[in-house]
Amino acid sequence: MLKHQIYILKHTPINTAINEDEALNCETSSSEGESIESSLVSDSEEQVFDVYEKMELPAAVKELYKRFCISEKVGFLIENPVRKLPEQFAKWEELAKNVVDLLEKNRFRKTIEEELKIIDDSVLQSREEMFHAAAILTHIGAAYVNDQNFGGPAQVLPAQIAVPWFNICSRLKIHPTLTNYIAANCNWDLHDSSKPAELDNLKAITSLTRNRAYEWFMMIPVRMEIQNAPVLNSLMSIRHILQLSVKEWDEDTIVNNFKRAEISLREMTTTLMRMRDHLDPMEFYHGMRPYLAGSYNNPGLPNGLIFEGVSAEGKRFIGGSAAQTAITPSMDAMIPVKHHQAVVDYNLKLRHYIPKEHREFLEYLDNGPTLTDMIAESENEVICEAFNNFIDAYVHMRSSHITIVTSFIVLPASSKKEDFLKTQSKRKDQSEQFVDDDPDSSAAQKKEKEEVPEEVRRMQRRKYSRSHSLSDVGTGGTPFMVYLKSIRDATDAAKL
Questions:
Q1: 185 neighbors 325 (Cβ within 8 angstroms)
Q2: pLDDT confidence of residue 270
Q3: Is the pTM here over 0.85, yes or no?
Q4: Residue 286 annotated as binding site
Q5: CATH match for 1-496 among 3.40.50.300, 1.20.58.480, 1.20.1740.10, 3.10.620.30
Q6: Is 448 exposed, middle or buried (0-12, 13-18, 19+ CB in 10 A)?
Q7: Where is the composition biased (Basic and acidic residues) (predicted)?
Q8: How far is Cα 192 from Cα 152, in angstroms, rounded to an integer?
């Protein structure tokens, strides 16, 4: 029987010198003068992660994890996240904390324009500091551009957000947009640091809703990242064993690792299907989804988003997508799953929306031996069966994702935004009261609308009520149902 393993996770700051020509160092070291909140877990406390019985990873796999910034305990998550930036960045932290209040009072854009100055980001040196800063600026930027108090997305992002956001993301070699990795994997904390990192104990550092909806939406992928750690550990261990001579193979170890991966995948699916627990599909589609939209394939931003102080030409970046993680691409590469060329091209594009180190890990896997080739060559029926059971669990997760997308995008797309707004009337009344207190607010909105090109306003009238995306196109810019069904079918075809 597979037993649970207790891990100790110390949340301490990491400080590493930056070398632009090399991947950022992932090892932990102390740093003087680094301003952070108290650690989530003290030296005397244990943080429990309910993964399955830990098998000692081969030394070669551990070296790969070190090289590509991967955690044996939490997979592709940042294991030791920074929770507070140095004091000179206090204004960023304040804005991120108050983003919901300012949006409800229709004062967010005005506050950014009048109170925020450009802050020099060069003092941020560690990978963890920069990702935390990127998460803060990502939410501030998404809230500014997609502020629902106005007639459409802002065409220009002010320099006080654009310059540091672009600089930090350039150093991290990741696109400046609201990605799944930035908004979820770099934006998580624990309600109670003495309890396990279960879904109900995870919380978002920065949220775009007053209730738990946005937090729940972002913490589900965080929990799935944690649950994926034993999947990754198992597959990497199997991959290592299969590269040895057949005489050195341990059939029981290989089969047990596939079982461990299969069980963990099914638990990830269970987590995914809990989306409705604290998130209503109508609220997601009409209230939250606009903030996830990027500047690529966005009818409200036909010329892209201008980063003031960076470029006078609009930039087009994909919005938030569940595919912006190395979880499924790493499995697809190791199996391998043979996708349609259009899917391959899109997945390669998405690699620029995950950390550079994880992108390089996927490239490493792309050029290595595959599980199907090695297993097929062995002609071992027991291992083959265990592999196929693992694929069945993977296909089930893919199918469940299609079910979630149908519930949260396809069905709500046929509803009217006005119906959703009726359920938000109390919030709207409160917001209007705050607007009336600000004599400049109506003039600001009028000026904002006048600055939006007529072509854009025509498109907004037709499409903005549908979260300024067509109902069959995701925030990642793809015709998602075709995409999701294709990758599900390709996954199933990988069985031996």
A1: yes
A2: 98
A3: no
A4: no
A5: 1.20.58.480
A6: middle
A7: 422-431, 445-458
A8: 39
